[in-house]
Amino acid sequence: MGAGSALAATPLDLPNLDALVDYRPKIPLRVYSSEGVLIGEFGQERREFIAIKDIPLIQKQALLAIEDSRFYEHGGVDFKGVARAVIADLTGGLKQGASTITMQVARDFFLTKDKLFSRKLTEVMLAYKIERTLTKDQILELYMNQVYLGQRAYGFSSAARIYFGKSLKDVTIAQAAMLAGLPQAPSTVNPVANPKRAQARQRLVLKRMRDLGYITEAQQKAAQVEDLHVRMEGQSYSAHAQFVAEMVRQAMVAQFKDEAYTRGISVTTTIVNAEQEAAYDAVRRNVLAYDQRHGYRGAEASITLPAEGVERQKLIEATLAQHPPSDKMLAAVATAVTPQSLRAQLSNGDEVVLAADGLRRASAALSPKAPAALKLKPGSVIRVQQDSKGRWAITQIPNVGAAFVALNNQTGAYRALVGGFDFGSSQFNHVTQAWRQPGSAMKPFIYSAALEKGFGPGSQINDAPLTLSGAETGGQPWTPQNDDDVYEGPITLRHALAMSKNVAAVRLLRAITPQYAHDFLPRFGLDPAKHPLNYTLALGTGSVTPLQMAGAYSVFANGGFQIAPYLIQKVVDARGAMLFEAKPAALAQESDRVLDARNAFVTTSMLHEVTVSGTAASTQKLGRPDLAGKTGTSSEAFDGWFAGFSGATTAVAWMGYDEPQSLGGREFGATLALPIWSDFMATALKGKPVYQMPQPAGVSQVGGDWVYDEFQGPAAAPAVDLDLLQRLKDMFGVKP
Questions:
Q1: Could you confirm whether 326 is annotated as catalytic?
Q2: What is the side-by-side strand order in the sheet with 266-269?
Q3: What are the tens digits of pLDDT across the range 351-407?
Q4: Where is the Penicillin-binding protein transpeptidase domain (predicted)?
Q5: Which position among 440, 500, 634, 646 bears the catalytic label?
Q6: Ramachandran angles phi, psi of 601, nearest 5°
Q7: Pick the catalytic residue: 41, 48, 67, 275?
Q8: Over the stretch 66-82, which tens digit does the pLDDT of each residue have?
């Protein structure tokens, strides 16, 4: 009887192999854009299963060359290697593993890694049992999907994506060799944790591949000098959609509990990748522009630097670990500071030097006379950013909040969502969670209500100073004011809305009554309980979320229907079985109408005027005749808004501090939120045909503007109430 047969016959209480035969790896929850771009991943193990037939030959050869070159020849155990390992164990320490791939599968699935003779014997016996139960390809498939390869990556497919940002089928010889070298010491010898040691291991793999004839000498040399393009953060997604991914994670955990992280659920969202990137860039760019307008605030933190040496380096590294990057904005510790120059160290140990233009933003903080709270000095934790030409400049992470959301106003599908400036700094999703005053962005709903009372865009209203008595307000007398303190006298409603005239809006609300306007709000999905039942309703002193505003403006955009925003398009499990698929309700069911089509059409025409001649006229740079929307600035400029739409896209941008405070005396919705909206729309509308809302029946142009047919002529004037005379006097500026 041979040695192999004797070992195979040894009676041991071996576990059954159900875990191998019915292999069910812990595959994380993955979130994708509508086009299949990965935007998020959740789970302790980053893993994705790949069939052996889909693993490229070069990757299999690289692995076998370094781990088990006789894999397809032996019966599960390499006896010469095992003998050396047993002798080493008996004489003082298992210094030579000699484990075949089959033995490693046995250990990884069923055993500990304790260096004991008994464990080694069981490993050998299990290897034989596995070889009798599974084919060689099945064993190799298990190993290449199960093995840990560092950076929470399990399996070669996941590792290729995490380290190189590509599919396993696309790896080069050099990258395949790098991956093949990882199983030996995945946590400490990988290209992120220790690039030099990982490269040394890779070169050993390449040498073995050359020795075995898998590659030529020329291929070996080329691979040794190839730039691997390692993603040094160890994880990167093709889209900046962390807030979206978190929304999906919460929904999946609510549905599947802890299994959401292990059963390989894949969620396809409605997010459009190009539009998501445009939204992210627009928010970041314009929040930074606002922050730059309002001055440098000083260091993020400050430490006392020890003298040169190991302690100093450890303190810098520990400090910077508490200040992770915000996209390309990197934390650094200042090591030398003068009014003209600054040296700082990055987390990777590199030193950067800033001077002249790179320090211009922080010039006040470098002055010898700078206040202590502002002054930069050695030990200050700052932010730096490199431009396209490699030049470093000082910057800072803004402390202002922001939000952006875009919906398909026909279906309710999210197209883009950015819940804040930096998800890493704060996971608070301003799109769905921030209840803020809408300011003048509320006015279109008042104007829409007025259309049902017989007013039209051409109706005249007096833009003149107004004081409401205590009897009318139910409290103290109130004198609303226009933001610019300019009053134009009698003007049309169209012009009043375009120029966001506060006094005109209050007069209009007075004419239709606050109660009527308040009762009108649910048509747009707005919660009346969140809005005051008084004259300040016209100035937006209630509370809304950006998502709520996007839904409300969509009622105008789609011709009079409420939409139900939805984010998840479909959910499938690891085997591709459909667990859920969204079926959005179709519009244009008249029974579902919440707003007269004529109202949506006429209000849209007024919102279009806002973008042509009003507070949002800067949108004309987009060169589109089909834009409509409204700026909004709340009291004391605590909030800046723009809500608008074009074609099938409704989008809302907002900016404000989490702890409400003024954004600045010269800041308005037009300077804060509108630039975000415009930058996004430049991408979202590119190449799309101009949309013209169809004119519904029952509305005609009279005197150059739109009027409901039933309100044409004196016989169809709005109903008269007992207070009409006083209101008419106020409208036309006649003193009683």
A1: no
A2: 38-42, 29-32, 266-269, 568-572, 578-581
A3: 999 998 999 999 999 999 999 999 999 999 999 999 988 899 999 999 999 999 999
A4: 403-652
A5: 440
A6: -65, -45
A7: 67
A8: 999 999 999 888 776 55
